[in-house]
Amino acid sequence: MAKQTKLVEILGANNQAVMQSIDSHTLQLHLSSGEFSKSEPWFLKDEKNQEYVVLPQKVLRNIIMLIRKAHEDRLKVELERDIIMHAPIDFDDVMSVAINRVESLRGKDGSLPNIDSMQIVKEIKEKHPNLFIDLNTNAFVRSL
């Protein structure tokens, strides 16, 4: 939660400047509010009222990290939902297998691709049917 608050503070920075073209290779910035900061974004407006944001590399990395974390949190919630829908005998065992499968898909850069959580659970159920209750058997059906 602290990093999310930090992100809101960073994106709410008040470092605004007007950008003026001096020549084809030179731009001049005139601060209209805020101050020079190496840790906050700059909000720029050019002579044609086009708006830009200049982010320090560290801020951009933090934003990307937060997006990745949100993606992974969403995936975990989807896995939990899909596992429960398939009637696991032991939820934690199935989740452990699912997490191992997801981790095997992680890229060299540490990112996860888009993953179909339902497909992951179906694959686990197919490979490890002993981890799920078989709702197709007559074991739960009372004879009359």
What report would you give on this structure?
The protein has 144 residues and is of the alpha+beta class. Helices cover 44% and strands 17% of the residues. The protein has a four-stranded mixed beta sheet with strand order 2-1-3-4, with no helix packed on it. Helix 1 (2-11) packs across helix 2 (57-85), helix 2 (57-85) crosses helix 3 and helix 2 (57-85) crosses helix 4 (117-127). The chain is rod-shaped and about 75 Å long. Residues 139-144 have low confidence and may be disordered.
Would you kindly provide a brief summary of this structure?
By secondary structure, this protein is of the alpha+beta class. 44% of the residues lie in helices and 17% in strands.
Average pLDDT number: 86
Q: Describe the global form.
A: rod-shaped
Count every beta strand, where a strand is a DSSP E run of 2 or more residues. 4
Secondary-structure content class: alpha+beta
Q: Helix and strand string, N-terminal first?
A: HEEEEHHH
Poorly predicted tracts of residues: 139-144
Query: How many strands, which pairing sense, and closed or not: the largest β-sheet?
Result: 4 strands, mixed
In DSSP terms, counting alpha (H) and pi (I) runs of 4 or more, how many helices?
4
* Strands side by side in the biggest sheet: 2-1-3-4
Question: How widely separated are the two ends?
Answer: 56 Å
Rounded to the nearest angstrom, the radius of gyration is: 25 Å
* Helical content class: 40-55%
Estimate what percentage of residues fall within beta strands. Answer: 15-25%
